[in-house]
# Entry
Amino acid sequence: MALQPVRMTVQWFVPKGEMGAITNALQTLMVEARGEPGCAGCFLSTELGERAGFTYVENWKTEMDLVTQLRSARFAKLAHLMERGMEQPRVEFWLPEGTRGIEYAEEARRGHEEVP
# Structure
């Protein structure tokens, strides 16, 4: 039986004036992610209107690969970028047992025993 890949999707909006700096930072994080064991791909899409919108996606081969990344300094940098948003970001984790929200990352970073 093949392992089901897992995905993290983050969507948020920032003031238009911050779009370039955040795009550059996200591209750096993507390059770093692609070099990590278990990375199955990542991508970024942007939307420009009254505000700048981002959709950032990382795919990981296993849930443990994802958890390792959630505990990394690289994820802390991503979290800092999300804090620059105009409103609460939408964060989803697609896991073998179902979809979870930002609380999953918080549990993983605390080393919660329910997270593998």
Summary: Residues 19-34 form the longest helix (16 residues). DSSP finds four helices and five strands in the chain. The first strand starts at residue 6 and ends at 14. The chain has one domain: 6-110.
